[in-house]
Amino acid sequence: MDPTVTHQRLTDRKRVAVINAAIEEFLAAGFDATSMDRIAARANVSKRTVYNHFPSKEALFAEILRQLWDASHAGETLAYRASVPLREQLIELLVRKLRLINDEAFLALARVAIAAGIHSPERARDMVARLGEREEDLTVWIRAAAADQRLRIADPVFASHQLQGLVKAFAFWPQVTMGQPPLSETEQQTIAESAADMFLARYA
Fold first, then answer.
1. Angle at 25 between CA 23 and CA 26, to 5 degrees
2. Are 180 and 186 spatial neighbours (Cβ–Cβ below 8 Å)?
């Protein structure tokens, strides 16, 4: 076997081990109490290996959140389709988002991130910036529908935040801050349909 390929596979395995160890540490100890030393020990790798993959604890945490986000979008991206009714597309997008933010692992890490952000607003801004490096699928969809003149929206980012606020009021903040149980699939569907109808009543 090519030594280069073997080395790359070992490197990839170490990166996965670091991420898994970091998730366990963040959940067990919180953001501030977790150190790169503890992550390295749990992953059974050197501290240098951890830093070779991630320059800082903040970068590592942001990568964990991004991977959770990407996992929720496994499969084909739900791109805007000119021939499909807006309501049908929007509900599909919102149901996918609801599935992510009702995931227990995502909610647990969100609590860690929020607690870390409360203690350090600068750190919170850094995390948000890292997660915002790629435009959100919902924003991309709204932008495309507006360009096709099927939505009357001057600011797609603002409209996307409005729509996500409608969803998170039921399916994120109560679970993260008040320990409410995740929503059932039926509840998720109801919230997706209601939010889509309110959004389209304003902008379609």
1. 65
2. no
**Where in the chain are the domains?**
3-54, 63-203
Q: Please tell me what DSSP assigns to residue 203.
A: H
CB contact set of 62 (below 8 Å; sequence gap of 6+): 126, 127, 130, 131
Which CATH homologous superfamily contains domain 63-203?
Tetracycline Repressor, domain 2 (1.10.357.10)
Contact between 116 and 124 under an 8 Å Cβ cutoff? The reply is yes
Give the domain 3-54 fold.
Arc Repressor Mutant, subunit A (1.10.10)
Ranked by mean pLDDT, the top range of 49-53, 55-59, 120-124 is 49-53
Minimal CA–CA distance to 110: which of 60, 65, 72? 65
Overall average pLDDT of the 109-129 stretch: 72
